[in-house]
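Following up on my earlier thread - several people asked me to post the actual chain instead of describing it. Fair enough. Here it is, all 381 residues.
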Amino acid sequence: MNELFVSILGDVNIPTYECDITILKNKEKKNIPSVLTGFLEPAGLIPAYAMLQLKPRIADIAPVGMALLRDCYVLPSGVILTGDRKVIVESIYPMSVTEFSDRIHVPDQEAISDIKEQRRDKIVELDQAIHCREIGEGGYYHWLTAVMPRMNLARTIIPDASIPYLVEAWKEFAADWLAFAFPDFRVQRSAGRALFVRRLHYPLPAQIGSSHFTRNKYLIEIFRENVLAKLRRHAETDSQVIKRAYISRNDAPMRKIANENYVMNLLEKLDFQNIRLDGMSVPQQIRLFCDAEIIIGPHGAGLSNIIFSDKKSSLIEILGVQRVWPTHRVLTSFSGAFYAPYVASYYDAGQTPERGIGNEDIKIDADCLAQFVSAVLGREP
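Reply from S.P.:
Thanks for posting it. Predicted structure:
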């Protein structure tokens, strides 16, 4: 077995680090039979690397738990190395060790040099830390559905708020979410330096397999329950309840609806209000998605808040034909809400070279959309 992997079958002499696995009970309160659930293949057992990276597999129950790694280095990008500089975990994306060398970036190169030369003044040493880094952490979708649920899982297993969390909250929405959900948590940023951690707690990734669009259902549900409980205790109140909301992207740099004014004129006749999430507080956004009976909006990260809705709600996601992604269909299924995709066939092909495929602005047949919305509103429960 490759020395980068730690077997979860028993004794394997890997002197560089040890790995312990803690598994929670799942949503249905059933005990997961074994940490090996879903990891048996004709060729034999997938090593514990799969437990950390969640390689593609078939399992009745997605594991929800946390690994404990010992004597590890964490690079500025979040990559985890053994004491002798071998890669344990690159990110939540299952990439091979050989791929890692092609993607290494400058801060990591400098940090690796510090590790090689054992420049103690450049390396931050921590007795314990909780690793919640994510390769897409600068995007709201990844922050809300991966970073935050992993932090929440860690809090569930280890309630000690004195242990620092390794996160990079370099976007405003990230700081807002931390202030709302985890105001008492310690956050340790890399600041371009390598970290040496004697006991590194690693919440299992939110992404399942190699699919960018999947998320661990049980991880999301645990997070959702705790957020909604906190919301009920939150002092901020809103007098207005919005039942029908259109989420605008007219302030976004891409994927806007070019004829949004025309579309909104027809939706207003169906009692929809035009909403911009930018500028709304975290509690306001959660309440909006909790209270609304139907939400419409073009594909964008803000729709990830649908995880806070329930089976009384509906989401109509407006997609361009170049970007028919199942991202929010997956999240909607977790909340129990009804999902209806509306695909617009027209997109501005002239924007493709600069923005990339799927990031073009689109136009909508507003009358057709209004009929579609009316059909969703009139559907049988």
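The first strand starts at residue 19 and ends at 23. That should answer part of your original question.
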